[in-house]
Each structure stands twice: as structure tokens, then as C-alpha cells.
């Protein structure tokens, strides 16, 4: 199986040949993020660590998108939406809200959570299971709803 870094390198070359400047810029940023993470951990990244880098990059762009929408910066909104689509292309398939709910329900039972006071315990147990497979805000909201 090809590593994320290999995929990014191959896609970077393809974007250069296609003269797709926006895709090239995003793929370059992702590649740099992965390489920086490798340097900081001192080894080739595991698939989980790769997903962690992608998740972080995706979250940064989604946060920037919200800010740009709020500020009415349409040029920035379009650019960020394009970047988000590129990043999502490297992410594992995302779970549906129903699938997330099922994992959260199962985790609540497993940790014996009964109230909102157990929120941290549930989040601590559920995040490793869903990391990169579902949006953090969705997970958070689902846990709150089921404990509330």
C-alpha cells in the first residue's frame, strides 16, 4: 500500500502537469505538514498518525472557512472550499451520523457513563475509535445529546 507521502508526491506531480495551481498548493501544504510531523516524531508516520495530520489540516481549513464566511470574504471562501475538498480526498471514509451515534452509545455503555459529568470519560474513550472517521463537532454533539 502506498504511504500518504507517496500519494501526495504522485498527486503533486500530476497537479503540476495539469497546471492545477490550487490543487498543487494544497497538496504541497499537506506534504509539508506530513514531513514536519515525521521530523517531530522522528519516524515514518503510522496510518493513524497520518490521519491525525490530515484531521488537523482539515479542521484548520474548516475554522478558517467559518471566519471567512462571517467576514463576507467570498474569494477566500471559494479557495478554502477547494482546499477542504482536496484534504477530504485523502481522509478515510467518513462515518454517517447514525454510525457515530452507534459507536457513542456503545462507548457510553462500556465506560458506564450515566450523566453529563461523565462527558470527559466518554470523549476520551470514543475519540480514538472515531479519529479521522467523523467530524469532532458531530462526535461532541452526539455525546452531549446522549448523556443529557
TrEMBL record:
SUPFAM superfamilies: GatB/YqeY motif (SSF89095). InterPro entries: Asn/Gln_tRNA_amidoTrase-B-like, GatB_Yqey_C_2, YqeY/Aim41, YqeY/Aim41_N. It comes from the Bacteria. One of its GO terms (molecular function) is carbon-nitrogen ligase activity, with glutamine as amido-N-donor. It holds the Pfam family YqeY. This is GatB/Yqey domain-containing protein. It comes from Ligilactobacillus ruminis (strain ATCC 27782 / RF3) (Lactobacillus ruminis).
